[in-house]
Design goal:
This protein has 234 residues and is α+β, with helices and mostly antiparallel strands. It is 35% helix and 26% strand. It is elongated.
Length: 234
């Protein structure tokens, strides 16, 4: 009987440890240190006089950036991973969730990368770019966040093509960008609703707890009956 109780306690501890992972807001889908950068499909400058080339660098390749850009990308990473109640990333994530009419627990970051320009000495006078990226998760993509070194902002995402797996957005300031996806922990994010979509994470936890308790009760009953038969036989 003690072994059964120990097993149940162990299983419940696993459930408790899993709760923070299910409810972590803004966590990465997977480590950005292993993700390649999204592929550049096209970059159309606002000015016809612009000769700049757009360069995308994955977080995994941040060592190739200048010291300043590397520090900014690492700061963006730290804010995503270690965000607190007053963290700028949590604030911008909440704003995006409100815009999408969903809960922040439904949002995760799939990619973190740097965008920069080169080969244009007077680019500051040329405005920005309309950029199209090839991504691997267009169907789940719900937003793009931009970190300018001191603050986060919601990028101007113009369109998503799920068939071509591309996303198009406009940007004038280049530094770290994060792709935000629907992590599937709640109701589908459709947008345009008056009420936020409910978060169903607690249902998952409740079901796991019930399964553990029922399994423990069944095992305890089987052992009880076995012990009872052994006593009667003696």
């Amino acid at each position: 009987m003690k072994k059964v109780l120990a097993l149940c306690v162990a299983l419940l501890m696993v459930v408790v440890l899993a709760v923070p992972a299910l409810a972590a807001q803004g966590a990465f889908v997977s480590s950005p240190s292993t993700n390649p950068a999204p592929e550049l499909d096209s970059a159309v400058p606002d000015s016809e006089d612009c000769t700049a080339e757009v360069i995308i660098t994955a977080y995994a390749n941040r060592a190739n950036l200048s010291e300043e850009d590397c520090v900014a990308l690492e700061e963006a990473y730290n804010e995503i991973v270690h965000h607190t109640s007053d963290n700028p990333f949590k604030t911008i994530l909440s704003q995006l969730a409100q815009k999408l009419n969903c809960n922040t627990t439904q949002l995760s970051v799939s990619d973190l990368f740097d965008i920069d320009t080169t080969h244009c000495a007077t680019h500051d006078d040329h405005g920005g770019f309309t950029i199209t990226l090839k991504v691997s998760n267009a169907a789940q993509l719900v937003g793009i966040l931009h970190f300018n070194g001191t603050a986060w902002e919601i990028a101007d995402m113009q369109s998503v093509d799920e068939e071509k797996n591309t996303v198009t957005f406009h940007a004038t300031d280049f530094s770290p960008f994060a792709l935000v996806v629907d992590n599937g922990t709640g109701a589908p994010i459709l947008g345009g609703n008056d009420d936020p979509a409910p978060n169903n994470t607690w249902w998952i936890v409740l079901i796991i707890v019930l399964v553990v308790l029922i399994a423990g009760a069944v095992v305890a009953y089987v052992i009880y009956k076995k012990n009872k038969k052994e006593v009667a036989a003696a």
